[in-house]
């Protein structure tokens, strides 16, 4: 909409003087696209964080079964609960002081504290954002989804678009409605399965045994805290290792501090001949294989579609081929990006037999690309259920492990021998927050 001022000039003949009348004219330009973007309902401010009433009883639900085979023993991960004083600061009391702390120069000494506070701040906002998806006066359905116990099914609009994001193992809360009154018992339901718009939940027997079709409930969603906890641990571990200063805060004097693995000018045969003819990609691969920047990381950057992933894959192949003692951890922020790495690597038998695509326990078999299913390189058993091999099996059988940054936290928690992974590659790192990208590196 455009506003134009218009001024009319008049002259009064009897009194022989001038006067003016000013008005604004508006011109609105619209089309079908603009009309489709118009609001469909009046604006509603975001809801406040749900507060549990005093005297509310909480009944624990039924958790999904753990993997039948879980040989990857993890060390416990701290809870990293949000400090109450930080909550008070963010409510306004002391926010100026907090703002000053976060705007100061980032140093290695203050790395853990800075990112720890940023992660806590992010989590507090996540608590607010998740409330947008809470549901009132909704119904559940009963079904025989599990032979050992009864699950209830909840339909969640927007679930297919991850609004909200709900994964196997997450939990939510429901409370019975009795007219306009919410009953004081709060039931915790664990997610056993997610299908398009439906979530299958395991609740306490008190709710299941008294369930009647047509009952209405209020639903409060939550989010899984494990990714945040792994990020907290990663930044703390990173700040406790002096060598990580060269990785996180590289200086010109630290580049090339370690001797090269090989002469970067030495030629070798490329698996992808297109890269061999591209000077920049060729040079990047040779320097990564030679390790010329160590301990500083080697960064590949460029606009979309310029071959960054292709260069990364070639570098992984060359490290595997030319350095027989190498053990490679290849990560990406999302399953789709990690799948792409694995797909491009397994197309040659040399890499297929030594590659392990490790998926999280929440990922369903039917979401895997067919190419990875056929290669049988993922952690799914004959029943298409997730399993985790032992640390010893991974060390013995696989030289390339491909996973997401968060799932790499399982490896970081499994006490692999120091230096077991000689190379860590992170594809699409620009799509991750820094503490997430530090998970596989600091471990």
Characterize the structure shown.
The chain is an alpha/beta fold. Helices cover 31% and strands 20% of the residues. The strands form three sheets. Strands 3, 4, 5, 6, 7, 8, 9 and 10 form an eight-stranded mixed β-sheet that branches. Strands 12-13-11-14 form a four-stranded parallel β-sheet, with helices on both faces. Strands 1-2 form a two-stranded antiparallel ribbon. Strand 8 (181-195) and strand 9 form a beta hairpin. Helix 4 packs antiparallel against helix 6, helix 6 (226-239) crosses helix 16 and helix 9 packs across helix 10. The two termini are 55 Å apart.
Note the main sheet.
Answer: 8 strands, mixed
Helix-strand pattern: EEHEHHHEEEEEEHEHHHHHEHHEHHEHEH
Fraction of residues in helix: 25-40%
Q: State Rg.
A: 28 Å
Counting DSSP E segments of at least 2 residues, the number of strands comes to 14
**Tally of separate helices:** 16
Oligomeric state of shown chains: single chain
Strand % is: 15-25%
Gross morphology is globular
Query: Which residues form runs of ≥5 with pLDDT under 50?
Result: none
Distance between the termini: 55 Å
- Class from secondary-structure proportions: alpha/beta
Overall mean pLDDT: 93
């Amino acid at each position: 909409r455009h506003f134009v001022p218009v001024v009319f000039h008049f002259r009064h003949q009897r009194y022989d003087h001038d006067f003016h009348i000013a008005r604004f004219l508006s011109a609105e330009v619209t089309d079908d696209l603009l009309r489709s973007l118009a609001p469909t309902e009046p604006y509603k401010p975001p809801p406040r964080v749900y507060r549990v009433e005093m005297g509310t009883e909480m009944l624990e639900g039924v958790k999904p079964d753990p993997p039948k085979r879980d040989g990857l023993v993890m060390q416990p991960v701290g809870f990293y609960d949000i400090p109450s004083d930080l909550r008070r600061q963010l409510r306004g009391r002391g926010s100026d002081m907090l703002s000053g702390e976060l705007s100061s120069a980032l140093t290695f000494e203050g790395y853990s504290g800075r990112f720890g506070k940023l992660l806590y701040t992010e989590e507090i906002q996540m608590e607010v954002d998740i409330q947008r998806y809470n549901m009132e006066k909704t119904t559940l359905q009963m079904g025989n989804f599990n032979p050992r116990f009864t699950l209830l099914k909840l339909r969640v609009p927007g679930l297919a678009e991850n609004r909200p994001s709900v994964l196997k193992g997450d939990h939510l809360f429901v409370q019975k409605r009795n007219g306009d009154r919410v009953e004081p018992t709060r039931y915790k339901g664990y997610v056993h399965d997610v299908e398009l718009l439906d979530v299958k939940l395991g609740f306490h027997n008190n709710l299941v045994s008294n369930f009647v079709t047509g009952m209405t409930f209020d639903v409060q969603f939550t989010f899984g805290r494990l990714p945040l906890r792994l990020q907290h641990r990663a930044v703390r571990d990173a700040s406790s290792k002096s060598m990580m200063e060269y990785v996180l805060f590289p200086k010109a004097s630290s580049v090339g501090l370690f001797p090269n693995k090989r002469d970067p000018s030495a030629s070798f045969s490329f698996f992808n001949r297109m890269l061999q003819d591209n000077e920049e990609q060729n040079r990047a691969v040779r320097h990564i294989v030679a390790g010329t920047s160590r301990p500083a990381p080697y960064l590949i950057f460029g606009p979309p579609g310029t071959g960054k992933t292709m260069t990364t894959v070639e570098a992984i192949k060359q490290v595997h081929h030319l350095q027989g003692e190498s053990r490679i951890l290849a990560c990406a922020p999302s399953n789709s990006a990690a799948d792409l790495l694995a797909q491009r690597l397994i197309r040659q038998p040399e890499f297929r037999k030594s590659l392990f695509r490790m998926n999280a326990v929440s990922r369903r078999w039917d979401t895997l690309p067919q190419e990875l299913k056929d290669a049988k390189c993922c952690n799914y058993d004959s029943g298409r259920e997730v399993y985790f091999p032992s640390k010893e099996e991974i060390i013995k059988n696989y030289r390339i492990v491909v996973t997401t940054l968060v799932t790499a936290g399982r490896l970081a928690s499994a006490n692999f021998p120091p230096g077991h992974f000689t190379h860590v590659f992170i594809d699409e790192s620009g799509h991750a927050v820094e503490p997430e990208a530090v998970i596989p590196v600091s471990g």
